[in-house]
Design brief:
The protein is α/β, with parallel strands linked by helices. It has helices at about 5-15, 20-30, 35-50, 55-65, 90-95, 105-110, 125-135, and strands at about 1-5, 30-35, 70, 100-105, 120. It has a single domain, classed as 5'-nuclease (Rossmann fold), CATH 3.40.50.1010.
């Protein structure tokens, strides 16, 4: 399964123990993890400014993430009504990459009207999905 993780899920995976960290490990082990340059930039900024993660550690995290499949932004962003326009490049890259799921902790992303191009779900919901595929 192709899975695109939003910035907040990835940052949580590296800064806390729990569901997002478990999801991240399971996706790396079993599924195709897709990311974009836009998300990489957001991760670097959040880890550095908000969480004060040492630069050397941020460089290691980014290097690991850059080894995953890289999604490109489409030439034109989709015409999807979304409250936070900063979320549109994330959604656009996830759709463009033909990911099966976009996993986000942001209710603005997961409460979008059902999109035919991708399923947008919260981490707990996605845990339920992958647990049915392969008992964890």
């Amino acid at each position: 399964m192709r899975v695109f993780l939003d910035t907040n899920v990835i940052v949580s995976a590296f800064t806390t123990r729990g569901l997002c960290a478990d999801l991240f490990r399971e996706i790396l082990a079993v599924h195709t993890f897709v990311i974009s340059e836009y998300v990489l930039t957001e991760i670097k900024e959040v880890l550095t400014r908000r969480f004060k993660v040492p630069e050397a550690t941020v460089i290691e995290i980014i290097a690991l993430l850059e080894k995953q499949e890289m999604a490109l932004l489409p030439a034109e962003l989709p015409q999807i009504v979304i409250r936070d326009l900063d979320d549109l490049p994330v959604l656009a890259a996830a759709i463009e990459s033909k990911s099966d799921y976009l996993v986000s902790g942001d209710q603005d992303m997961t409460s979008l009207a059902p999109l035919k191009q991708i399923k947008s779900v919260m981490p707990r919901e996605f845990w339920g999905v992958i647990s049915k595929i392969r008992p964890i």
